[in-house]
Amino acid sequence: MKAEVLTIGDELLRGEITDSNKSFLSQRLLTLDIETRFHVTCADDRADIAEVFRRAAARSEVVLVSGGLGPTRDDITIEVLAETFGRKLVLHEPSLEALRGFFARFGREMAAINEKQAWFPEGAEVLENPIGTAPGTMLELQLAAGERSSSGRDGVRKVLFFCMPGVPRELYKMMDEQVLPRIASRRRVTSWVRASLLRTFGIGESSLDEMLRDVALPEGVELGFRTQFPDNHVRPVARAASAAEADAKLARSCEVLRERLGVLVYGTGEETLEEVTGRLMTLRGVTLSVAESCTGGMIGEVLTATPGSSAYFKGGIVAYWNDAKAALLGVPDEMLKQHGAVSEAVARAMAEGVRVRFGTDLAIATTGIAGPTGGSAEKPVGLVYVALAAANGSQVRELQLAFDRERNRRLTAQIAIDWVRRHLLGAPLDLPRLGRVERKS
Amino acid sequence: MKAEVLTIGDELLRGEITDSNKSFLSQRLLTLDIETRFHVTCADDRADIAEVFRRAAARSEVVLVSGGLGPTRDDITIEVLAETFGRKLVLHEPSLEALRGFFARFGREMAAINEKQAWFPEGAEVLENPIGTAPGTMLELQLAAGERSSSGRDGVRKVLFFCMPGVPRELYKMMDEQVLPRIASRRRVTSWVRASLLRTFGIGESSLDEMLRDVALPEGVELGFRTQFPDNHVRPVARAASAAEADAKLARSCEVLRERLGVLVYGTGEETLEEVTGRLMTLRGVTLSVAESCTGGMIGEVLTATPGSSAYFKGGIVAYWNDAKAALLGVPDEMLKQHGAVSEAVARAMAEGVRVRFGTDLAIATTGIAGPTGGSAEKPVGLVYVALAAANGSQVRELQLAFDRERNRRLTAQIAIDWVRRHLLGAPLDLPRLGRVERKS
């Protein structure tokens, strides 16, 4: 089954908006193991839309259309669909009622212009939109089998058109609740697909691939890899003849992968490292403070992005200048003079100093040269120290990063947060095995 | 002149990558006043690419293709282009030399597989790629005028195909330096377009529109608006019969707009508020420290994202818990008890406290309830105080925000940084006139 995704709207062609609906629709089709063969975008133009519809019908079996279902003059998707395939438009009374009800809920009367949204091509099925005004449409076409099609019987091939709203929230809901089940029920099911995402930090994509090369996964399970700096994620995809079997294969795969990767896996799906680490701190009743130099406040910002972070995060000191490191963190002037602000000794003193001042169980500190300037022969750009202080002592590591300023800072913050997680799990405070990261201690 | 943009690659269709090349190419075409009529993406498949090429040639006059120029088996753009339009592939010696030179610069020998990148359709023009291995191609086709085309003479119409690498850095350079000039020299020039972007903070899109409704701009200048939370930008676009005239109209428009908007305009083009504010501090030799509660380190992070920020930013204290506000910023316990941490008095004490502790000229402070929980009837979610302290006194404002946690924090940080800019320019410390922002003081 080959699919095609069409999006309609002038604003998409001007390049001012990134069209993420296409990606979403293709990703969702993949859950039914259906590949998208073409993405096409055209303007709100009658002739262009008709041409795009005709081409799609000639070469694809499932056509997903997004956009142009609104009430204004520009919104002509449904009209053009009917015209292109020789259908009349007919009024769908239940949709008209639903539209009136939608406006009534907000205490408003429906404008005449909205009535248009209750008209559909004859023979089409209406897809309800419980969270917006524009219902969707499914139209099943029976076409003469063209030369490029080999799927038809008796010279007839079927093409399914689905029209959905362009508003992402409405599109997502309609795709998942109404479109995917209709496609699934119509295709000859050969396989069910289930996928998961295991999030790892601290290992490069190729090392991850290497570590998993000989892992014994159930038959029909494939691994994909995704880089999302500074993380790398593993995506097991399980295919089976039934949904239950695919679920079971996926669960087994995740188990096997977690066993192999151990503490490198910090979470699944959409979970962030700071959420997972924050949850651990909440569970253990542990508090944290931070002393930041090169990260400039980023660790605090990342930690407090999670609602409820005040349960464990007491605060921090951003000591960008040396005199602040001395005055506010109690780093001895002598030490700063002897070792310099970017040194193992100062990183340790910062972590210990901030821990005492905030009275927290744990503290982390960063000091380094993020770049692009500020380096020397002895202390080059990318030299960074990370420290973690606890009641029973502190640990520091030196590392040499070779990214740009933004990513050097982002990676340093992530290492510091990962150390808190590792400390709470009793795991060693490893430095990441990533390309462009040299581990010096 | 109608254009079409084609991108090629399996990974684009799977929805795992957001295809930003299309947007870029369409935006650049608009500088020549050329509208894109279709965006099409297809897989690395010979038949699909050929079909897409044929359709594009039949309906568009300029076709921009990105991707599939690499050395691997998947990279077949050039081969299919030649096949589709009946051209032989011929070896381009200078490109082969350039390829060998490219590898030699990195001390490596060119692999045999790369030779492929020096073959082009007969009659095509080669576009150099000084920063990568894949040269581009321009192929000018002379086709019989089809029924949809009205632009041809004597039954012949010309179509320009440009193939460019998919690597964004290489694509951007090739588009600007080689493709746009070639298109410009071939089309019948009816107008030159010049655009600029004036960045504003502190005013909503509709208020901005309102403020500019009766502004007297030169003829042929149109205004566009772009929202980039929490900023809103104005985009004057000037059209004229010559480049010089368009430049002059644009310059005059920017002058008129700046006059009308005053201090609301903080910069142009890609400049950020923190860069502009940092430059002002550097020029005046002014230093800054911050005391953050609800922003949790975000202001420090944003300020230190700019290289060279250590010239003015000494550091900050993130006082997330109340005892930190007392112990590290000297906010009196009594005041915290009487007014609560989220109060005008505490915001002021935080700014004044951090200014003294860091010994800076200026200091800013934030305290508030970012949400989604933590509010009360008296102090609801979104209540925020911002304070600025200077040698000659301090100022505080109360405001009520109605965004989500992330945007409440982002907006608060932006207000604080904008206040530093306004203070240095001698402008009043306004609160933003944005939707969902209530100004209480």
Q: How would you sum up this structure, described in words?
A:
The structure is a homodimer of 441-residue chains. Chain A is α/β, with parallel strands linked by helices. Chain A has 3 domains: 189 residues, 3-Layer(aba) Sandwich (Molybdenum Cofactor Biosythetic Enzyme, Chain A); 76 residues, Alpha-Beta Plaits; 167 residues, CinA-like (Maf protein). In chain A, 37% of the residues lie in helices and 26% in strands. Chain A is built from 14 helices and 19 strands. In chain A, strands 2-1-3-8-7-6 form a 6-stranded mixed beta sheet, sandwiched between helices. Chain A has a 6-stranded mixed beta sheet with strand order 15-14-16-17-18-19, with helices on both faces. In chain A, a hairpin with an 8-residue loop joins β6 and β7. In chain A, α2 runs parallel beside α6 and α10 crosses α14. Chain A is elongated and about 85 Å long. Chain A starts with a strand and ends with a strand. The mean pLDDT of chain A is 91. Chains A and B meet through α2, β2, α3, α10 and β15 of A and α2, β2, α3, α10 and β15 of B. β2 of chain A pairs antiparallel with β2 of chain B, so a sheet runs across the interface.
